[in-house]
Amino acid sequence: MSRTLISQWRHLKTEVWDKLERRKSGKLEMYIELYRFAADELKLSEEVDAYSDPHLARTLLRRISANDVDSEKRCIKLVEGFRRVLRDEFKKEPELSQGYLELLSDFLKHRNLRYKVTDAGNLVLSISGLLADQYDYLKRAVADTGHIRQILDELEDTATIDRKDKANNFIRVASNMMEGIAIQRAGAGTSLSGAVSALKNGSCFPHDAVADALREIYKFASDYPNIRHSGNPAGKKRNLKCDDAVLMIGLAIAYAAFLCNELDIGCVLTGSSR
Q1: Cα 143 from Cα 150, distance rounded (Å)
Q2: Which of 76, 94, 148, 219 is 20 to 30 A from 240 in CA distance terms?
C-alpha cells in the first residue's frame, strides 16, 4: 500500500538522511552507530570495517532496502530505533536527534503516510490513515466478489454529491453495499433485516445494539421518500443534504469493513499484506 512506510523506504535517503547531513548538527560519525543498530536489528552479515569508517557505514545504511527490512512492523522499529540511537549516543548534541524527528515528521506528511510522530519519537497510526487504509483493504477484499465489487464501483462513480439531487442516490448505493455485505457474511436471508437477525444469533456483534443500529440505519434509506422506495412521507423531517450522504457513506464503509468475511482488520492496523 502506498501509505505504508515500507513502500516509501527508499525515499528516506534523500528526505531524511541527506537533509540531516546538511544541517549544522549533522555529522558522518552518526552513521556508524545507526548502521550498527540496523545491522543488529536486521541480522545483516557483519561488516566490521563499517564500525570505524563513517563513509562505509553511510553507504551500507543507505543500501538497506525494503526487501532487507521485510515488514511494516520492522520498518517502524527501525525508524524509532534510529531516533533512540541519535539521542543516546550523541547526548551532548540533542539537536541531532531532534532534527531527525523533525525530518521524519516532514517525510511522513510529504509522502502522505499513515503515521504521525510523537514527541517521544514513536510512530502512531493516525485516524485519517486508518480510515483510508480501511477503505483500500475493503476494495481489495471484495475485488473477486462480483456484485459487492460492482456496488463499491457504483458508490465511487456516484460520489459527486455537490448537488442536492445526488444525495438520495448516494445513500441508496451505500445502503445497498451494507445489505450485500451483511447477506454475504450471514450466508442467510435475502435482505439486510434477515441477515442481521441471523448474525445476532452468533458472535458477530459484541452487543445487540450494534446490530440494531445497522438495521435502523438501513431503515432510514428504506423509509425516507424516494431513496430505495417511495417511502413514508410522514417520517420525513427535512430535505436531504450533502451532509446526510457523507454520513451514510462513512457508516456504510465502517459496517462493510466490519462485516466483510475477507477483511482481516489486523492487516489494516499493522499495514501488512493479506
Answers
A1: 9
A2: 148
